[in-house]
Recover the amino acids of this structure.
């Protein structure tokens, strides 16, 4: 059940627009932020808030790259596999990330910290190869830069737990 502290602001926001469904993505992101991913329960809650069916919400959710219908790590790494990134080293970046995190694309580290996913294009072609971490972009990637990024994120997670 969605807590009042999340539900009330969403209801207020929805009431301010003519058609509730125009806020479907915003609502899904809010619920995802609350639950960590868009669970089946969250889909049903979104549907109720938006006067949509759960199927309609699920159809939207599965269309968008940044809506997660399954649990993900604290840090979601989207490695760009567009043509430009591919030409500029996507394969080596992907392989390095898989080795460094000891997971394959589509998996989450056992500690729940990192999930590695592909993304079609992030529009960072002039700084390829590139990746997003929780929607923050990083470009001109190599092993050393990836190591620094990962180490900073691990340190950030440790600090957050203290």
């Amino acid at each position: 059940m969605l807590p009042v502290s999340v539900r009330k602001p969403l209801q207020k926001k929805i009431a301010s627009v003519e058609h509730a469904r125009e806020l479907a993505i915003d609502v899904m992101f809010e619920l995802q932020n609350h639950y960590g991913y868009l669970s089946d329960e969250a889909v049903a809650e979104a549907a109720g808030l938006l006067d949509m069916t759960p199927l309609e919400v699920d159809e939207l959710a599965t269309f968008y790259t940044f809506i997660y219908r399954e649990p993900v790590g604290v840090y979601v790494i989207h490695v760009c596999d567009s043509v430009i990134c591919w030409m500029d080293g996507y394969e080596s970046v992907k392989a390095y990330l898989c080795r460094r995190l000891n997971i394959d694309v589509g998996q989450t580290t056992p500690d729940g910290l990192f999930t590695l996913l592909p993304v079609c294009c992030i529009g960072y072609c002039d700084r390829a190869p590139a990746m997003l971490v929780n929607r923050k972009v990083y470009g001109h990637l190599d092993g050393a830069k990836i190591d620094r990024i990962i180490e900073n994120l691990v340190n950030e997670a440790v600090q957050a737990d203290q």
